[in-house]
Amino acid sequence: MLLCPVCRDPLTVNSAGQHGKKMDDGAARFLRCPRGHRFDAARQGYFNLLTGRGTEFESDTAAMVQARVDFLGGGHFQPLANAVTSAAESFAGNLPLVLDVGAGTGYYLKALQEKVSVSASVALDISKYALRRSAKELPDALCLVCDVWRPLPVADQFVDLLLNIFAPRNVPEFARVCSDGAVALVVTPLPHHLREIAELAGLLGIRPGKATEVAASMAEFFDESEARRVEFGMRLSPIDVRNVAAMGPAGHHTLSIDVDSLPPTSDVTAAFTVQVFQKRAHTG
Asked: Fewer CB within 10 A of the end CB, N or C, for the chain?
């Protein structure tokens, strides 16, 4: 299922303790390919597959990840998690092998696995801080630090269900790893997402037509089966407002939100598009 990021030979998952004895908890401790390239699990359970010069892309920081954990832990995006899970239930087959590209803290993958039985799951993200959380929340998943713009560490035609939620899209690689007929779920924000606090929180603008752009970018390999608009209201505390700003791209910059100046609660709109794509046969 996995490929070595150095030589592209298959990677084997090994569970071993001292002197080759299996760990009591059965946790995967290292990955190794036939050529001897080995990747040890971090203490928190994830594997770092970044090689060579690393990556030029800025990953989410520990502070951004903590803000996301705190915000999502409040249940504010639960309707979105429900919509993703519902789409998977409607379109994915039985016991899918799931790949979450840009998994972050594992929030959406965990929600899906609570409703959908899977054969295996793999969580990819460029942030080791995020994958520490994923590994904790998803003990049965393989959580891998990697750069989505490089060849993914997944074998050809292995994935039945791919999640891509607020994350970059390397469509040719998606097509390579997805089996014929596999389902890809892509989530993007709508222009009016968080509009009530966008200026106050210093959030980046969202271009109109993102769903159309996504469909065009996927069209060489995938057919769009459905696009669901998911919109709901949230009542946020000042801390929630700060966290929702800090957990996204704006979190890479200094935020000047004075939580003491905010009202006790703010009514804020959440708005997304959940697009369902199916991999065409004999492409990728």
From this structure: N
